[in-house]
Amino acid sequence: MPITILPPKAFREPPRNLHHDSDDVMSDASSDSEDSDSQPGGVSLDSGETIHPRKRRSAATTSGSTFTKRPKTANITSSISVPRSAIVTPGERITTDPQWMRGHGTYLSSATLGEQAITSSLAGIVTRTNKLLSVRPLRARYTPEVGDLVVGRIVEVQAKRWRVDVGSTQLAALPLSAINLPGGILRKRTETDELQIRTFFAEGDLVVAEVQQLFQDGGAVLHTRSLKYGKLRNGVFMAVSGTGGGSGVVRSRRQVWTLESANNGGPIDVILGVNGYVWISKHVDPVIPEEAKNQQTGITNLEEVVSATMYSSQNDRIEPETMREIARIRGVVTALVENGLRVDEDMVTKGYNEAVEMALVSEGGPEDVYLGGERGEQLAAALTGRLA
Amino acid sequence: MASSQHVLLSPAELAYLHASLSLTPPIRPDGRSPTQFRPLVAETGILPGTNGSARICFADGTEAIVGVKAEVERTRTRHDFPSLDEGAEGDDDDLEDNQHDVVKGDNDWVEMTVEIPGYRDDDAGTVFLSAMLSEALLADGEFTKRLWINRRFHWKLYLDILLISPPLSYPLPLLSLTTHLALLATRLPRLKSEGDEDPLFDDDWAAAAYLYPRPAAKKGSKKTTSFATPTARPPVTLLVMAVGNNIIFDPSKEELAVADVALAVSVGESSNPSSSTAMDIETEETKGHHNLRILSVRTIDPPSRLTPPGIPNASNSAYGANAAGAKDTEKKKQQQEQARTAESEAVEGVWKAPRGGAKPLVLAALVQKVLEKGGVADEVLDALDGVDLN
Amino acid sequence: MADRRRINGPVGTTIAPIYDDAPEQKSQVAMATRSRPANVIRKMYLKTGVTPSASGSAYLEIESSGNGGSGLKLSCSVHGPRALPRSTPFSPHIILSTHVKFAPFATKQRRGYLRDPIERDLGTHLEAALRGSIIADRWPKSGVDIIISIVEGEQDREISKAQGIEAWDTMNALSGCITVASAALADAGIDCVDTVAGGVAALVQDAGDDAAPSIVVDPIPAEHEKVLAACCIAYLPTRQEVTNLWFKGDLPASDMDVYTQLVEKGIQASKSANRVLVDCLNETVG
């Protein structure tokens, strides 16, 4: 059947993670414990400093009047209240306690008694870093942070730099001085390099890079001064929502890893850019060109050689088996995103293994890599079932 | 919304896509089989304020809504030559029926607009889409006859096709399927008046007749006596492309970017000439063997022609050993010369935008693949049958 | 597209009466018949370099049906390649923009000054046909404008009401546009892989009770009782490739032969037009 037409669903279940969070908050402490941290849907937003609803509440109770949250319609009745929900909405007062400092996603508004209240300006989750209160939005575009590994697409070439789309509010900049020039890692850039800037990266090229510094306006400056960064080839690109959404790529221990694929697919590199751009490609061991082999080999020379392929736009030979597994991994990531699950090394690996097993029992056999529609839901169900 | 809108893909991506789609069988980025469509969610009758409506969305969030509105309009007549109007025109199939009420339509009775967010309504691509969809609808000249009320009045049908989301892929198949469903769900109030008097309609919406009467609903088809075309259906336009030796349906944006040739094929289903009473049983039996008509074929300018070409390593001045001698201007010049001469040679793993057109045989194969018995068009129509029309 | 920039007349329109000839005359002229063999296109006149100020230009005239009507007269000018405005993003290829415009007086019904959907649609078809023929990567970062004015469309004076015929006439217009634009591009010195020319074939039903439908090239809709289907092809003869295909009509899908034959005849018509095109270009040089 080439086409599947489904009737609309009656209603969409809210994403699991949010659902559970609010449950946790509203139910009593008697609710059974460990699950909120190990949710598969995961509170993707908390990378360390987020206060979990439960933790936050305990913090609130121990430190006294931490949060004052009132329904906007109600009168001011109590100065101490337990947050009813983990989510605050724009205009919702978070606290009037002057000991807190306001952070991102909040603003100061004058309360009735002349006191300053920290009010949320976003729909999101309150996070606390020491005395700093901020609200992390449920869904937002990528906000770059120094050290982030990102995948970006060159959209503009200027005289001495490239402009890179990283899915952020601003185009990121990649200066010519922040790339490894070919032919010697420590070579000074010359006018010739400026003139042939397009031979390094041209419009449309994909790069993997690291955020080196940030401008005041939120724009990022990237660099590719490492052998693991540079132009991408031998694979497929996909854009999923980045950090800040309920699903999508989350900051985790490893954003880049090599996955040993099934069905003779060989090793496959997966790059999950923190900005939600994903690159899945055949793993290629650096090949030393013939001419370079004859020259003397040293550490610097080796680097030189490895960086040689950095600006190539020619794909290596890729076996159909590898392509099939790349498509399967891409399907896994799509299924994860469409079903509101987080995308990280753990989930992708587990999802991939599950998908390989699913394909074995499907009528198409192991060569069937389709994971759209119902199969994606099956996959997601299997993953959440296993992990819960 | 041109098909050739600027697709920014890197040469390496394009080379990979082209290579994987050229395999036998092709490996599509989302794992679909060559003839498989993206799964979609469809419903009809979503807008109570319209005569007919439908909505279709893909899993990636692309969504289209079509609303059909009908208004009664006075038919502009040429008072001078009523005889010429009917006799000499010869636009109708049934000339012998000319003596009394000849049911005839005019293409002006249908107004179709396509709205793509972010594109002007007079954008060449939007106009192209709307021309393609209306061309298929009006091709057989039968559709406008359904809008005929009497000699003085007719329905004016407004088809408003809205893409709700930004176009993540060329929206032609999506818009066409949605329009198809909306037209199937379209109902016109039942006419109470007779002859050429000013039309008067039944207030009861439940009694309204379907624009395309259905074989199953006997109640509906009995009331619509003016046209004995029970199995006729609105056209469906399918997007099909070829890469290498493969024919691929419902391409995504990335796939279209490496297409050698892309075609939009409009398919209709004509009324069966046999009697309408036997129709109910017959359609059940001959499911999958629709009486297909080919209504329109258009080449879509594939965006692949505008993609940036890759540079083979051999002539890449930033590549490996070449780069080491970058200061050697003599060598570089030589390389540039080489690059010029090697222009037309294909290097494996290097993307090269296609030039020229498509072989006539390829084009014929694409159309054949759509129309063959039990082919994709048949199955798509079967699947559309399954949509609940309310 | 409504003309929003000018003051338009009131919406309620009426149609001016058209006076028909006396009945006996009418029977003589009402149905002109095709005098050419089925696979011969009409004579055409093509000349390049007609507009000195443009980079390239061409003029095409196709003879009228000899029925007191007018033939097709097209004028095409090519401007470019020229630099793109600063604001446009980098393009590794030449950017093609096509404008097809009927002169307000070209058709029986006067056309407005703004391009209507049919004209825009023609422009898109033309662009697809030409893009396949030019070597776009020879001219990075540049653009070229191709402007075609249809000075006179095909109209038969005697057909008092031509409902449904105009739709088929656009195909003839498109094929003319493709041929003339190709000549103008060659005149402008823009690299092409091959010359592209347009050709039309149609499945027609002739007058008469028992006439079977037949396929003719370069049809004049007024000469036939009914046009069942037609297709317009843009063809590269030396590469043997089709750059644009536009088929319209109503054919049973079970009978693919008719469709295939139509396309073949369209290609044949295009080849004939191409011969004229090549001769014309040779003449200019010689």
TrEMBL record, chain A:
One of its GO terms (molecular function) is RNA binding. Residues 87-129 form the Exosome complex component N-terminal domain. Residues 10-23 have a biased composition (Basic and acidic residues). Residues 1-82 are annotated as: Disordered. One of its GO terms (cellular component) is nuclear exosome (RNase complex). It holds the Pfam family S1_RRP4. GO terms for biological process: CUT catabolic process; exonucleolytic trimming to generate mature 3'-end of 5.8S rRNA from tricistronic rRNA transcript (SSU-rRNA, 5.8S rRNA, LSU-rRNA); nuclear mRNA surveillance; nuclear polyadenylation-dependent rRNA catabolic process; poly(A)-dependent snoRNA 3'-end processing; TRAMP-dependent tRNA surveillance pathway; U4 snRNA 3'-end processing. Its main location: nucleus. Residues 141-213 form the RRP4 S1 domain. It is found in: Nucleus. InterPro entries: Exosome_cplx_N_dom, Exosome_RNA_bind1/RRP40/RRP4, KH_dom_type_1_sf, NA-bd_OB-fold, S1_RRP4. Residues 59-82 have a biased composition (Polar residues). This is Exosome complex component N-terminal domain-containing protein. It comes from Sordaria brevicollis.
From TrEMBL, chain B:
Residues 313-326 have a biased composition (Low complexity). The keyword Methyltransferase does not apply. GO terms for cellular component: cytoplasmic exosome (RNase complex); nuclear exosome (RNase complex); nucleolus; ribosome. GO terms for biological process: exonucleolytic trimming to generate mature 3'-end of 5.8S rRNA from tricistronic rRNA transcript (SSU-rRNA, 5.8S rRNA, LSU-rRNA); nuclear mRNA surveillance; nuclear polyadenylation-dependent rRNA catabolic process; rRNA catabolic process; TRAMP-dependent tRNA surveillance pathway; U1 snRNA 3'-end processing; U4 snRNA 3'-end processing; U5 snRNA 3'-end processing. It comes from the Eukaryota. One of its GO terms (molecular function) is mRNA 3'-UTR AU-rich region binding. Residues 77-101, 300-353 are annotated as: Disordered. It is found in: Cytoplasm; Nucleus, Nucleolus. Keywords: Cytoplasm, Exosome, Ribonucleoprotein, Ribosomal protein. InterPro entries: Exosome_comp_Rrp42_subfam, PNPase/RNase_PH_dom_sf, Ribosomal_Su5_D2-typ_SF. Residues 327-343 have a biased composition (Basic and acidic residues). Residues 86-96 have a biased composition (Acidic residues). PANTHER family: EXOSOME COMPLEX COMPONENT RRP42, EXOSOME COMPLEX EXONUCLEASE RIBOSOMAL RNA PROCESSING PROTEIN. Belongs to the RNase PH family. This is Ribosomal RNA-processing protein 42. It comes from Sordaria brevicollis.
TrEMBL record, chain C:
InterPro entries: ExoRNase_PH_dom1 (IPR001247), ExoRNase_PH_dom2_sf (IPR036345), PNPase/RNase_PH_dom_sf (IPR027408), Ribosomal_Su5_D2-typ_SF (IPR020568), RNase_PH (IPR050080). GO terms for cellular component: cytoplasmic exosome (RNase complex); nuclear exosome (RNase complex); nucleolus. It holds the Pfam family RNase_PH. Residues 41-190 form the Exoribonuclease phosphorolytic domain. GO terms for molecular function: RNA binding. Signal peptide: none annotated. It is found in: Cytoplasm; Nucleus. One of its GO terms (biological process) is nuclear mRNA surveillance. The keyword Iron-sulfur does not apply. Its main location: cytoplasm. The keyword Nucleus applies. Keywords: Cytoplasm, Exosome, Nucleus, RNA-binding, rRNA processing. Belongs to the RNase PH family. This is 3' exoribonuclease family, domain 1-domain-containing protein. It comes from Sordaria brevicollis.
